Amino acid sequence: MSAEPQPDLPGGAEATAAEYVLGLLTEAERRDFEAQLAADPGLEQEVASWCACFAALTDPIPESVPPASVWSGIETRLHGPARPGLLRQLLPYLLGAVTAAAIAWAAMVSGLLNTGGTGPDLYADLVAGEQGLELLAHYAPDSGTFMVRRDAGDYPPDRALEIWLLSDAEQAPVSLGVVQPEGLTSIPLDRAVAAQLGGATIALSEEPPGGSPTGLPTGPVIALGQLAER
Amino acid sequence: MASSPHPDIEDLIARVAMADRAAFARLYERTSAKLFGVCLRVLQDRAQAEEALQDTYVKVWNNAGKYRVNGYSPMTWLITLARNSAVDRRRRSDVGRAVQPLELDDRLADPAPGPAQQAEARDDAQALALCMDELPPDRAEMVRRAYLEGATYAELATATGVKLNTVRTWLRRSLISLRECLSR
Fold it and tell me: Complex ipTM, two decimals?
């Protein structure tokens, strides 16, 4: 075994995989091991099973609820400082721009009037910057159809693009369908699915031809958008 | 770990991979008490454990997309991230910390059929606990310290008063015995 730290040590690659998981290899040994790991799926499996084995050592450890400051710290590290409350954001407008407020009120009232019956049309832009691809997703409630139009860029030649609905955190992503490589994609939706669309996030992922084989996204998510009225 | 509803956590991780912040909050709600317990166990210090827990969830957010391809159960993946974050902090922050002595004993591993073979192990954790019991107590303690405290070979050598390479040989043998026991 070429990645063996010292040939006289017992246990072979199996024990070295355990030392790797424990963080006990020297820098040079770790580099050798990782090079071997990249080339050997069997070794990868060995590492995974050691991780599972050691993780079970934490079973007797009592749970402990962390203070709320930890969560806000995580949010700040990932998404920047929390924005000021809604009222504070709106206050300048409420105080100063009476006219603007009146216009906003009028817009809101007319918006409300439009929402009777079948609900509003919903739109979302899906922009995959890296791929130079821009799509417009549109749900038309009168026909119950979800449509996807390509506005810029090209579809990847040997991959399918699949649209996913992320309506709430309780539920796994729901596939809405695969984008057609030619022309307008038009997907009839069940009423139950359509009812979840307002304000929901949709995602575009790259999948093998024909779409995800597992029912959940398997490839990278290349664009996200939020369905809203326009 | 039997206490955690796996399919739900797996779904949540899949959604976190798609930058779903609500799912991320839900995942935190479900798993943070367990992972904070792990960080506290490793670091023995609340402030440090809080930092390590933040490191952990930042990694969860950034690496959730890689989770699906690497074949770990969701709790194993999360616990491994938490343990490693905590160990990283511990090793960085207390270089030269005092090492608790580890008493050696000469009791050999029990070669008789152990409880692991007699009782049907209910789950991984129970099987592991039974197999750890089959190791001599000092060797089991070394395994525990290496994982749960991030002890290095140098620290284990200091704790036991034996040479580093001897400690390493012992630990590797113990790990192999553990695996043999678990695969029985």
Answer: 0.87
